[in-house]
Write a structure and sequence with these properties.
By secondary structure, this protein is α/β, with parallel strands linked by helices. Helices cover 49% and strands 23% of the residues. The chain has 5 helices and 7 strands, in the order E-E-E-H-E-E-H-E-H-H-E-H. Strand 1 and strand 2 form a beta hairpin. Helix 1 runs parallel beside helix 2.
């Protein structure tokens, strides 16, 4: 069962993150996105526009995904984070680790340069 919706825009892979990223979802999400990162897309963007909850396991998965993408020579970013996810990113320090963009258009422009 696939939990993330994936689409491309040129050389950019965009992944829509699920509504709730709890422990179980985080493990499946991590596996799915790491498979995509292993294909070494030029850029990988995660869309958090519908995500209302993310657990600590979800944060750990994001860290692994970002490291894998960057190790493969690609760019990584997140966009459209909801207020709860923004709060969690700020409290955990993840807002300093990731490039965070307000909109998809802004994210695509930034990783395309």
């Amino acid at each position: 069962m696939t939990i993330c919706e994936v689409r491309t825009s040129g050389k950019i892979t965009i992944i829509l993150i699920p509504l709730q990223v709890d422990h179980v979802v985080a493990m499946t999400m991590e596996e799915e996105i790491l498979e995509i990162a292993a294909r070494k897309p030029a850029s990988l963007l995660l869309d958090f526009s519908r995500t209302k909850y993310i657990s600590s396991t979800g944060l750990r998965a994001l860290l692994k995904i970002a490291k894998a993408q960057k190790a493969g020579g690609g760019r990584f970013g997140v966009f459209a984070i909801t207020p709860f996810v923004d709060h969690i990113f700020s409290m955990s320090g993840f807002s300093r680790l990731f490039s965070i963009y307000t909109t998809e258009e802004e994210a695509i422009k930034a990783v395309s340069q």
